[in-house]
Write a structure and sequence with these properties.
Elements lengths: L4 H9 L3 H6 L5 E3 L2 E4 L11 E4 L4 E4 L5 E2 L1 H9 L3 H12 L10 H29 L4 H9 L4 H7 L2 E3 L5 H8 L4 H6 L3 E4 L3 E4 L4 E7 L5 E8 L7 E3 L12 E2 L1 H4 L7 E4 L2 H9 L5 E4 L6 H7 L5 E4 L5 H16 L3 E4 L8 H18 L2 E2 H10 L7 H15 L5 H14 L4 H15 L5 H33 L3 H5 L11 H17 L4 H5 L5 H12 L9 H28 L3 H12 L1 H6 L4
Parallel strand pairs: 13-14, 13-15, 15-16
Antiparallel strand pairs: 1-2, 2-3, 3-4, 4-5, 6-9, 7-8, 9-10, 10-11, 12-14, 16-17
Helix pairs in contact: 3-4, 11-14, 16-18, 19-21, 19-24, 24-25
Length: about 600
């Protein structure tokens, strides 16, 4: 659905960001801004700044930032349209009816009906659990130590032992067979007709982060197979992109999340007070799971089963999580198989101790390697040390690698200098000897990268200055324009800034942020507009810094244009660029910076 920019702006301006964010977290006025504890990461000292004048927020701790839409989308995990509707309703603004194409309308209607039928099924399963037919399932849950409060909190239910029970109920509500088939709740075939996907099972509704039922899991009563069964993939449900319990875990104030393997583990840990627990849905942990978690934390503790299958699952998950930027630790469940068994046997206090002693994922991996060797055998022990040395090469930064070399030597009783030499030796063997020509090329690449990094900093610096003092645009007009910004996101920010100033004679950061779609880009733009320049531009030191920045950016821009002119063999353009470059100093110096 497309909403006009004027309407989006109206909704934004009718919702003061300080009032809205202040309804979620406690804010205190500090100078021209408001400060509070960041809701996107755990902190004890407030680093979350909300600007009333710029109508934007920025966390100086974790880097989160944006305007009022960004905040609602990130905090509530809403889509943009959902955030717009929420804020419009809050401000008493009536949004126009959505205009869909025929295909879009059909897709939206289907999605809505799927959510509706899942809600109906979840309600029915919950009712059945408390009925006479569900007594055995209810007793099973109570025997597993699950309280009525937790049963209600997770919406647990029961699918009757009759294989067409839900089918007949849904047909009675008016649902047609074709739709029931694609819902994932019903199987249809010519011989048996309609049969339930789930029957004689304890039911675990699976919810998205907005608490909408998108699928189900079922645990068989008795010895039937499979023991656990999930909904098939539908328009709503993709097990590789959803995590059980995340709708509840996201509300936890803990600065980490626990990841386990099953429904019962999640429920047992939530009941014990560890409400920051989630589980993958009968599938290996994926990069999509990691991306989903990045919205809520940067630290995870794996509480996988202690058997071989659990260890293999952890080894698969660790690199995925580390590649996504997570700090990863492993909780030792021994002598118990899983968190559910552990909590029942030793209680939540002992489990908290295991959390406090959680093992660094690197040492967990080393311990797994260690199990493959007999360290009482000198030859086997040597092979183990070789594997450890090769593993240490995975740390690219020398400081980090040295810290781990020291820790490994201490933990595994290895001579530190011998280990260091072994690591360096393997590292040398991995380096391919390069010719003088290759060295020269590498030197040129490094030099170029350093130069490009400097230009990026200059572009960000100038945009920050302009955000602080919009009149700078008038003062650099004719010398520098949006076409002279050509690095990453700064190119588009500059275009928006100059264009907005031209039309409205002011720069409105919150409005510009809104034109970037991804939360990452919005945070990056917010960072530009949140930086406070120390000192005034009318001081001599700041004037010189500003002149130097403008000159460097213009020279870089002209150099890029020269390359294009040479490639196009355009001598006239090249001569004009050379002349313009020679006059930069004069053009900049005559202006009152």
């Amino acid at each position: 659905m497309y909403y006009p920019e004027e309407l989006v702006e109206q909704v934004r301006t009718e919702n003061d960001i300080v009032d809205v964010i202040g309804s979620y977290i406690r804010l205190q006025k500090k100078g021209s801004s408001y400060m509070g504890l960041c809701p996107f990461h755990n902190e004890k000292t407030p680093s979350f700044s909300v600007s009333a004048s710029k109508q934007m927020y920025h966390c100086f701790g974790c880097g989160a930032g944006g305007n009022i839409y960004t905040f609602i989308m990130e905090y509530e995990n809403y889509t943009f349209v959902e955030a717009l509707k929420y804020l419009a309703e809050r401000a008493g603004i009536q949004l126009p009816e959505q205009e869909y194409t025929k295909e879009e309308r059909a897709k939206a209607d289907l999605r809505g009906r799927l959510l509706e039928i899942n809600k109906q099924a979840a309600t029915y399963f919950f009712y059945q659990l408390k009925s006479k037919n569900g007594q055995a399932a209810y007793n099973y849950l109570r025997k597993r130590g699950i309280s009525d409060e937790i049963i209600k909190k997770f919406g647990l239910g029961y699918a009757n032992k009759y294989s067409d029970d839900l089918y007949r109920y849904l047909k009675g509500l008016g649902y047609e067979d074709d739709f029931l088939k694609i819902s994932g709740l019903i199987n249809l075939n010519e011989r048996q007709g309609g049969t339930d996907k789930f029957w004689n099972r304890v039911i675990f509704p699976i919810m998205d982060t907005n608490n909408r039922v998108i699928g189900f899991g079922g645990r068989v009563m008795g010895d039937g197979m499979p023991k656990y069964l999930n909904s098939p993939e539908t328009m709503l449900f993709d097990k590789s992109a959803n995590l059980y319990g995340l709708n509840l875990a996201k509300l936890s104030r803990a600065d980490y999340l626990l990841i386990c393997e099953g429904y019962m583990d999640v429920i047992a840990l939530h009941q014990a007070g560890f409400t920051n627990t989630v589980a993958s849905l009968g599938t290996a942990f994926t990069a999509r799971h990691a991306n989903l978690l990045k919205r809520f934390t940067r630290q995870v503790l794996l509480t996988y089963d202690s058997d071989d299958a659990g260890k293999r699952a952890a080894l698969r998950a660790i690199p995925i999580l580390k590649d996504a930027g997570f700090e990863v630790k492993i909780i030792d469940m021994k002598p118990y198989k899983d968190p559910d068994d552990f909590i029942k046997a030793l209680g939540k206090e002992e489990f908290q101790k295991r959390i406090d002693k959680a093992k660094n994922s690197f040492f967990f991996e080393i311990d797994i390697i260690k199990e493959e060797y007999n360290l009482s055998d000198p030859e086997q022990k040597t092979k183990f040390f070789y594997q450890v040395a090769k593993k240490l090469l995975g740390f690219q930064e020398e400081i980090e690698r040295n810290i781990y070399i020291e820790a490994v030597a201490k933990n595994y009783n290895i001579d530190i200098e011998q280990l260091r030499r072994l690591v360096n030796r393997f590292g040398s063997q991995m380096v391919v000897a390069i010719s003088n020509k290759d060295e020269f090329k590498q030197s040129r690449r490094n030099s170029k990268k350093k130069s490009e990094d400097g230009i990026i900093k200059c572009q960000k610096l100038l945009l920050t200055w302009i955000a602080e003092d919009n009149s700078l645009i008038d003062r650099i007009k004719g010398v520098l324009g949006p076409e002279d910004f050509n690095e990453g996101i700064y190119k588009e920010v500059a275009r928006q800034v100059f264009e907005q100033y031209e039309k409205e004679n002011q720069v409105i950061p919150a409005k510009i942020i809104n034109r970037f779609e991804s939360p990452e880009e919005q945070s990056e733009v917010a960072d530009i507009f949140s930086t406070v320049m120390r000192g005034q531009i009318d001081t001599e030191a700041m004037k010189k810094a500003l002149r130097d920045t403008i000159i460097r950016l213009k020279e870089h821009s002209l150099d890029m244009q020269s390359l294009k002119a040479i490639e196009a063999n355009d001598t006239v353009l090249l001569q004009r660029i050379i002349k313009e470059k020679s006059e930069i100093m004069k053009n900049v110096d005559i202006r009152a910076f």
